[in-house]
Every structure is written in structure tokens, then in C-alpha cells.
Amino acid sequence: MNSWPYVSVIIPMRNEGKHIARCVDSVLAQDYPRDRFEVIVVDGNSEDDSREVLAKYGDRVRVLDNPARIVPTALNIGIRAARGEVIARVDAHTTLAPDYLRRGVETLLRTGADNVGGPMRTAGGGPVAEAIARAMDSPFGIGAYFHFAQEDRETDTVYMGMWPRKTFECVGLFDEELVRNQDDELNYRIRKAGGRVYLSVAMRSLYQNRETYRALAQQFFEYGKWKVRVLQKHPRQMSWRHFVPPAFVASSGVATAGSLFSPLCSYASLALLGAYILAVMLAAGVVTKKHGLHLWPLVAWAFVVMHWSWGSGFLWGLVRFGHRWFQAERQPPRLDRKAEVLPTRAAPAL
Fold first, then answer.
1. What is the pTM of this model?
2. Mean pLDDT score of the chain, rounded to an integer?
3. Most buried by CB count within 10 Å: which residue of 32, 75, 150, 344?
């Protein structure tokens, strides 16, 4: 039987002692031929027991250092060290279905896409974590298709990703300035260069979402803030849905401030807030009808935290990165050193 393309699985990690074993175990349990993939964990100077956990795997897992401690540099370090013809990103908070790699390679071969990935299915946990998971699965919470995908299709971005090595040779590596949203930016460059990004629902994985509202707020504030840098680099990458949360937060603030001086502004503020509360409660009702009405207020609050944190982060990003509108943008790093790539061999017929 002919063999499959060699795959390099890259896992960025920092202080993931709680999750990394479950993630690595799911990678090592793949039904993909074991001699046709490698696992590379790129550690950002973890201060917990993450490295001790990884040491138990011996030479089954390669561990590299990431002094910069952020995801895009970790991914680039891993890609440069990878031996595979195919690069697969796996996040430390994620566990893969046993056929994830095989399904991904099949999708690459079948579609000829330049990046493939699956939907993000959230794991939940306790009542708050479960509510956050259900809110993240809803189009009302996050508009990106991969959060609620039900069928295969070309899309603007996917969860995690699996790329032929030549994709990076063509469009460059991850932008190392973008602490967040580096995947959106890369996928835009792929599509701008004439490439295709494809989502396959057969590529199944489970993401452990944030388990407290505070952690959720921090996560979405950072997403909103760094989206401003994506806007500055690639204005056409933005969709109207990206501007709704900051526009709502800004207009709510203006209306509330104006209500101190004008009864008309006070009425406008109350009307805006009332319409938003109604929309949130209706959306939460639709979600919890499927998953249990006891989650209704918890899901509603998760929506509020996501919207206001993302919108506030975006507005702060406009201030924080305001000086960058007038500066030339640096190009992302290139894949300028080719690692030893294992020989290509034909894959089984699909």
C-alpha cells in the first residue's frame, strides 16, 4: 500500500500543564500511520509543570523553545523546524478526533486547497463554562462560520489549520506582531494570493473554552484590540460584523453621556439598551431551547461579556495603535530556510 504525506503537527504552548497531556495523547492516538507524522511542541518558557508532563513522552514529542512567548513566533519556529510536506496546527486546549489528521490530508488532496480546517466545537464543563460554550457556538455570539459550521465549504478562515508546506513558501509565515488574530491575517493573505481556504466538518476536534466570565472577557478584549492591527494591515479583510460591537459600545457611551445634558439622549440611551437586552434574551432563548433553559441567564450574560469585551477592545486598539495608521507595515517573515523535508510518496487513492 502506498504511504501518506508526512505531516508535522505543531502545538504552541505556554503554562498548559492542565491541558497538554490530553492534547498530545489525542495526537499520538491518530489513525494516521505513526511513521508518517511528527509532533513538535513549541514552549514559551512555561512556568508550570508543562515541560515535566512532556518529558514523559520521550522522543515521541520534540520540544522547542519560544523565547518570545507568543503564538505566532511559536508557530514559525515549529514550521521552520518541521520535516513534513504538510503542516498541521493543534492548539493545546484542543483534543482531536482519532481520524483528524487523515481527514485533513484527504481534504487537502481532494480539494487542492491551500489551508483546510474544521469547525470549533466547544467542550463546556460546569454551568458557566457550558453557557460560554453554547454562546460561542451561536452566530449571535461570534460571526465566524467555523464556530457553527454544519457543512463543507470554502470560507474566509478555519479553526487551527492544515497547510501544504508550499503555502508558507508562497505567502510567508505568520505575522509575529499579531499576538491575536494571526490566523485571520494569514488566511487573508492566502486568499489575496489566489489561494483557497476550505472547511470540512469531518475534521473533528474539541476545544476547551474559557471557564469563567473574567477569562472570557480578557480573551475577547484581546481579540478586539488586535483586530485593529489586522484592519490597519488589510482593510479589506474586515466584514461589517466586525464593526457592530465597537459601534454599539461607542454609541451606548455617547448616548449615556449625552443623557446627563439632554432628555432626548436619555430616551435614546434607554431605547438602545432595551433593544439590545431584548435581542440578547431572544438569542439566549433560542440557544438554551436546545441545551436547557436553566442556562438562559448564563448564556445571555456570556453574550454580553463577549460583545462588550470585543467592542471595548477594538476601541482601545484604535487608541493603542493610532500611530500605526501613518507607518509603513513590515512584511511577515519568509520561510527562508528549508528544513529537511521527507520524500514525497503517493497517497492512497481517495
1. 0.90
2. 92
3. 75
